[in-house]
Specification:
By secondary structure, this protein is of the alpha/beta class. The chain has helices at 3-17, 23-31, 35-43, 49-60, 111-115, 183-196, 216-224, 240-247, 262-269, 309-312, 321-327, 332-335, 352-358, 364-378; strands at residues 72-73, 82-91, 94-99, 104-109, 129-134, 139-145, 152-156, 159-164, 169-175, 199-205, 228-231, 251-255, 295-299, 303-307. Bound molecules: guanosine-5'-triphosphate and zinc ion (ZN). Its main location: cytoplasm.
């Protein structure tokens, strides 16, 4: 769009909404993916009279498509031309989208949409549902981003960076052997999922290598906390059907250390994918990081799996030592009964968490992993 025209559009937009929603507020709500609240803000107080309602509709496109009512939209005159799609990847200015019409589009993002965000890299992220205008059978322009839910994000320097949007599950893949089971790592992934408020599913893979009864007690501990767990084998396809059923129509992020069998599981869930599978080398028992590029893999039944190396090994982002207990469902019932409100459940006296560990209401291994996490990573050395 010519710069002049863009500036005018932008000025018009701001003028229309002056006094209703502050620019910074719009930007913040948009950036944090909080578009329900963005739409609320546009619709809310001070919208009086018919004129205002008309203006509201120009912004959110509520007239033409009720699904879009809460989304951010800046220009919709002929909505029937728009195609709904899902963002597969974002490479610089190019956004790859799979349209609901089955076509793959390489898209740009409408300039005015970008101008609402101060950090343009995150206007659109993988997993976003968008409305696009096809400009050719392969090219399109993203006109709006539909409301996000289940956002996986990290905060750096006080700013939230959304990594993927519309995530229903974090699939935590662990292997019960080769590489050996590392429950402390599962605990960390669970914390990240809790921080992002995304439901985790713990998948114990390679169950063909051991007697599954051996790990049943540990699986039971997680299940008793309310986590969904599944013991599977990508090798023998044991329990792959229930896993596939769980993922039908859902978007999931894969997490788990190298070599646990993430690619092998994906190949089983979605036959025909043909993802490269690596060997676990005997010397380091760690796998070889076969997967290098980010991808969103659409699955049958309308779902998708995000397989992003950065997320596979995702770490704890900006978590404070005193928040950890509250994010653990087995600790949570006790934390408010500790004598000190800022109790870290380590060396303090009259600690309800430690009492619960002492009489086995909290699993001792979980508590041990908690102490290690705090002492090694979260507290000053
Ligand atoms: N015995 C057995 N081996 C498995 C199973 N699943 C995967 N493997 C093997 O484990 C090795 C690693 O599998 P991948 O699927 O490449 O693991 P990954 O987690 O994707 O690894 P990265 O790409 O490095 O993150 C391969 O040799 C697989 O054949 C299983 O259920 N049982
Ligand atoms: Zn305590």
């Amino acid at each position: 769009m010519p710069k002049k025209k863009h500036n005018k559009l932008r000025a018009d937009f701001r003028k229309k909404h002056q006094g209703r929603v502050r620019d910074s507020d719009l930007t913040r709500r948009f950036q944090t993916g909080d578009q329900d609240s963005l739409a609320d803000a546009v619709q809310s107080e001070r919208l009086t009279g018919k004129g205002d309602l008309t203006r509201k509709r120009t912004v959110i496109g509520a007239d033409s498509n009720p699904d879009q009512a809460a989304g951010l939209n800046v220009k919709l005159d002929t909505d029937s031309d728009l195609i709904r799609g899902r963002v597969v990847s974002v490479h610089g200015l190019k956004v790859r989208v799979i349209g609901d019409d089955g076509r793959r589009y390489e898209c740009a993002v409408r300039q005015l949409l970008k101008s609402l965000s101060t950090d343009q890299r995150h206007v659109v992220v993988a997993g976003d549902r968008v409305m696009l205008r096809a400009e050719s059978p392969q090219d399109g322009m993203i006109e709006s981003v539909l409301p996000r839910r289940g956002v996986l994000s990290r905060t750096s320097r006080g700013k939230q960076h959304v990594i993927v949007a519309n995530v229903d599950y974090v699939l935590i893949i662990a292997s019960v052997a080769r590489p050996s089971l590392k429950p402390a790592l599962i605990d960390r992934f669970l914390l990240t999922a809790a921080q992002c408020e995304i439901q985790p599913i713990i998948v114990f893979n390679k169950c063909d290598l051991i007697d599954p009864m051996r790990i049943q007690p540990m699986v039971g501990v997680y299940a008793s906390m309310g986590y969904r767990t599944l013991m599977v084998s990508a090798e023998t396809e044991w329990n792959i059907d229930p896993l596939r059923a769980l993922l039908t129509g859902k978007q999931a992020v894969l997490a788990g250390q190298s070599g646990v069998g993430k690619s092998s599981l994906l190949n089983r869930i979605q036959p025909g994918l043909g993802l490269a599978v690596g060997e676990v080398s005997d010397d380091n028992d760690k796998g070889r990081h076969t997967t290098t590029a980010s991808r969103l893999i659409p699955t049958d039944g309308g779902g998708a799996v995000f397989d992003t190396p950065g997320i596979r090994q995702f770490q704890l982002w900006n978590i404070e030592a005193n928040e950890v207990g509250g994010l653990m469902p087995d600790f949570r019932p006790y934390v408010s009964s500790c004598r000190y409100p800022d109790c870290l459940h380590l060396t303090e006296t009259d600690c309800a968490v430690k009492d619960a560990v002492a009489d086995a209401r909290i699993d001792a291994r979980r508590y041990d992993a908690y102490c290690h996490l705090l002492e090694e990573d979260l507290l000053p050395q």
